[in-house]
Amino acid sequence: MPPARRVLVVGIDGVRLDTLARVPTPHLDTVADAGFLAPVTVTEPTPTMSGPCWATIVTGVRVTKHAVWSNDFSGHRLGVFPDFTTRLARQDGRRTYVAAAWEPLVTVADGGPLFRRPTRLTHHAPAADTPQAWEDADEATVRDAVAVLTHEDPEASFVYLGAPDETAHHLGCTAAYEQAIASADRRLGRLLTALRARPTYDEEAWTVLVVTDHGHRDEGGHGGDSEAERTAWLACAGPDVTAGALPVRPVLHEDVAAQVYAALDRTPDSHWTLDGTAVPTLPRAVLFDMDGTLVDTEPLWLDAAREVAAAHGHALTDEEGAWVLGRTCADTAAYLAALCPRAVGGTGPRTDPEATVESALESALEDTFLAAVETGVRLRPGARALLDRLADGNVPAALVSASPRRVVDAVLKTLGAEVFRTTVADGETDRSKPHPAPYLEAAARLRLPPEACLVVEDSPTGIAAAEAAGCRVVAVPSATPIPRAPGRRVLDDLTELTRAWGPPPRS
User: Fold this and answer.
1) What per-residue confidence (pLDDT) applies to 110?
2) If we measure between CA atoms, which residue out of 470, 471, 437 comes closest to residue 456?
């Protein structure tokens, strides 16, 4: 059973992006390092105020649709364009949770609430409009949120922290403001710890988004058009994002709600008319399987296995043929040795030592497969364009194959050896797919952690190896259907990946 998908969005009000470079924020850094942290520009005509920005963030539509134009929400259209916690609760019956101290977010004050009908809600209004009162309110908010996130089971949650914004309003972007940001980061750390403390955490796949709504002028305050006010940011980590990923287009506030839906595997209805989309990202490296992924050699390999099996008295069934896909020559030889009546381990006469028979089968498989490959191979649809896109974007590519080096080198005459920073063939690691060693070796050669690498595979064997290595996976099935799972996208062909990444940025 695949892990249950869950999402936590933490909104920290009014945190300047440039201040993050000066303030120690280890918990935000943890999220950013596991995924990405990207600037967000508050686009015209959205006012740089909390109400309009948070409405765009949680509804996924722009100000011209949700009609929250100020911190007075009167005249809004949130009934037509609800926040993600309300939409998921009302339309899908999902459990959602909101914790916030700012009244218009969760009460009828000033034309609210922004969050119309989440399943669960906690609210602690500040006792006064002072920085310390807001610190106290955020502390109470996080205390409740930690309890809910640890002991209950919300599928999508939003937790709001307002003290940094209020501190800047009262005291400007001073040392006190930086201390408020550091305090917010510590509270973020407690929320992340609450997730890990869940009894069911190991059976869940969590996406975490941390976002701010706007910046501040140096003296404190916002609402204008300066770069400091219009620059916000989003950090995102989860099973669908590689570590250190790079967004391939500018990130927008309206993308946050879309990212929530994507993280929950919820396809937005076209009638929602969302303005945002899940953020497409480039990984730091792409590790490709070869047979069946980049080149259409799986039929050749299957024919080779059938030919060798037939020569040893066995007709390979469809089920047996599916097993050999993505396997090494050695593994397939051992498998055939147990099936073929004229091979050791089968039901027929046993005349040769087992190791000798398996070695002979392995040699026959390699020679037969190589002969077929040398007659010419066809690229899988979109393979050349995808490799060119990575080269144009200076994203390292590696080839990780279960085929012998002789076969890999023969295929590289078609693919072009120059497009890969490194290649790993069968026998060049202690163990082969489905063991993770080949993918771990490729990542190590690129001097990257495996979680920063995206693997493109076509077979269950290769996918098992990649996921065991800790890599994110794009599956492009060739001969065997592949189910979706957290950390794994399933595409019809490689062209979908190229389209998702779009053209390389202009230099």
Assistant:
1) 95
2) 471
> Distance between terminal CA atoms of the chain?
45
pLDDT digits (tens, 9 = 90+) for 32-81: 999 999 999 999 999 999 999 999 999 999 999 999 999 999 999 999 99
What are the tens digits of pLDDT across the range 364-393?
A: 877 877 777 788 889 999 999 999 999 999
Strand partners, 5: 205
What letters, b where the CB count within 10 A reaches 16 and e where it falls short, cover 430-466?
A: eebbbbbbbbbbbbeebebbbbbbbbbbbbbbbbbbb
CB 463, CB 487: distance < 8 Å: no
Say yes or no to pLDDT of 321 above 80.
no
pLDDT tier at 345, thresholds 50, 70, 90: very low
Nearest residue to 195 (alpha-carbon basis) of 143, 145, 149, 148: 149
Task: Give the containing element (helix H, strand E) for 195.
Answer: helix 175-196
Span 2-29, average pLDDT: 96
Question: What is the pTM for the complete model shown?
Answer: 0.89
In whole angstroms, what is the distance from residue 317 CA to residue 305 CA?
11
Residue type, 394: N
Residue ranges of the alpha helices (H) in 237-283? 255-263
- Integer Cα distance of 139 and 477 in angstroms: 49
Q: Dump the DSSP string for 489-503.
A: EE-SSHHHHHHHH-S
Strand partners, 209: 9, 236
> Hey, CA dihedral for 216, 221, 225, 226, is it positive or negative?
negative
Beta bridge partner(s), residue 41: 231
CB-based contacts of 181, cutoff 8 Å, min separation 6: 12, 15, 19, 20, 23, 25, 164
Tokens at 12, concatenated: 């920290």
CA 77, CA 133: separation in Å to the nearest integer?
A: 31
Bridge partner list, 135: none
Cβ atoms 291, 403 nearer than 8 A: yes
- Range from 54-68, 100-114, 155-169, 404-418 carrying the lowest mean pLDDT: 404-418
